[in-house]
Amino acid sequence: MSPQGTAVARRPVQELVADGTGTAAPAKQSEGADAGTTEETKGGGRLPPVVVYHDWFNLIAIAWLNATNFYYLATGRHFMVFYVSTMLYFVADLIYVGVVPRSVKSPLVILAHHVISALYILIPYHYPHYGWCMSYCMLVELNTWLLIAKRTLRSKVLEVLFYASWVILRNIFYPYLIYAFYKEWQHETRVSGTPWNPILVTPIFQTALTALNYYWTLSLLLKPKKYKQL
């Protein structure tokens, strides 16, 4: 993926903008909500259990991914621990969302995101010297974790950090990576003697993921004021 927590008792749950990681969507309003969201459950707008389970899975799994990523960035060691953890996460979440599409607002978007991401990270597996590219891309999962944590723990501090990291990582850093990966493709072209090398797909995939981030951002900005909070 990106959006928000539950409403107070006996009021409709606010809608979410699905985020790039497959985090949960809230229950649907009884009137006028976007198609594809889950129906509001009994009990004053509480999130369905499948959504709650998915949130807690992501809180734990993404915390581990972030820890292994930061360790790799700081030390340059144990890339495969980070890599395997990331691939297992994408596969596990892909299966869960495929089996329980009610757990997210836009399951097809999330499934497509996970497939692209899983294919994308095959590159550093076969070309380990590009491990830093995967690591930089996965920094966005800090924002994903803050998304889920702020609505689970209901902390204003986490909410501020979430919005700040959204702009920095999704709207500024990801577009920069398109340029960075384009330069890496040019370097690989000089080394290999052909532009048709595997690194060619990196600026393309990065552009697709960046476009998805801007789609989610615009979805947030264009929502009615009462639904703008993620």
What this model shows, in words?
With 230 residues, this protein is mainly α. It has one domain (27-227). 63% of the residues lie in helices and 2% in strands. It has eight helices and two strands. It has helices spanning 49-75, 79-99, 107-120, 122-126, 131-137, 141-153, 156-192, 201-221, and strands at residues 27-28, 38-39. Strands 1-2 form a two-stranded parallel ribbon. The longest helix is centred in the last third of the chain and has 37 residues, at 156-192. It is globular and about 60 Å long.
Helical residues, percent: 55-70%
Number of helices: 8
The whole-angstrom Rg is 18 Å
Strand residues, percent: under 5%
- Tertiary shape: globular
Helix- and strand-based class?
A: mainly alpha
Strand arrangement across the biggest beta sheet? 1-2
Order of helices and strands: EEHHHHHHHH
How confident overall, as mean pLDDT? 82
Q: Report the biggest beta sheet as strand number plus sense, adding barrel if it closes.
A: 2 strands, parallel
Which segments are poorly predicted (pLDDT under 50) over 5 or more consecutive residues?
A: 1-44
How far apart the termini lie comes to 12 Å
Extended strand count: 2
Count of the domains: 1
